[in-house]
Design brief:
By secondary structure, the chain is α+β, with helices and mostly antiparallel strands. It has a single domain, classed as Roll (Pnp Oxidase, Chain A). It contains 2 helices and 5 strands. The chain has a 5-stranded antiparallel β-sheet. A hairpin with a 2-residue loop joins strand 1 and strand 2. About 5% of the residues are buried.
Length: about 140
C-alpha cells in the first residue's frame, strides 16, 4: 500500500486503537501463487512485546490450509472513507478518496484447541453484550 510519508502512522498505540475499533479485517494468503481472501472479525492481541492477530475461520473454508505454507500473510483493516470532490478545494486540484487502512504482514499458524477456546471467549466478550454462552466455548 502506498502511503505518503505525512500520512504514515508508526505509533503502536494508535494502530492498536484503530484495529480494536475496526476489527473486521481481510486475511489474504496465496495458494500456488493465487491470492485468496477471507473477511473475518479479528482480534489484535499483545503478549509481552509481541503483537499477534487471531480469528476463527470456518473449517469448510479452504484458506486455513494455506497458513502453514504461505510465507507472508497480509491482513487489512479498513476504517472510515469518503470521496473528496475537487470542487471542495479553493484552487485547482483533482478529486481523491480519503480513507484509513492498516496493512499488517506476518506468518500464519493454526491455534491449538485451548488457544482457540480462549480466543473465542475473548471475541464473545467483545461482541456479545447479552452474555451469550455456549458449551462449545467452555
Amino acid at each position: 500500500m502506498y502511503i505518503p510519508k505525512y500520512f504514515k502512522i508508526t505509533n503502536a498505540e494508535e494502530i492498536w486503537d484503530f484495529v480494536q475499533k475496526n476489527s473486521f479485517g481481510t486475511i489474504i494468503t496465496t495458494d500456488q501463487g493465487k491470492p485468496t481472501a477471507t473477511h473475518l472479525p479479528l482480534g489484535l492481541n499483545k503478549k509481552d512485546d509481541d503483537y499477534y492477530i487471531t480469528g476463527h475461520m470456518a473449517y469448510g473454508n479452504p484458506q486455513w490450509r494455506t497458513f502453514e505454507t504461505c510465507e507472508d500473510v497480509l491482513v487489512m483493516f479498513q476504517g472510515p472513507h469518503a470521496y473528496v470532490s475537487s470542487s471542495w478545494y479553493s484552487h485547482e486540484n483533482v478529486p481523491t478518496w480519503n480513507y484509513q487502512a492498516i496493512h499488517m504482514y506476518g506468518k500464519g499458524s493454526i491455534l491449538e484447541k485451548d488457544e482457540l477456546i480462549e480466543d473465542l471467549k475473548r471475541m464473545l466478550g467483545k461482541y456479545e453484550q447479552n452474555g451469550w454462552k455456549s458449551s462449545f466455548v467452555g
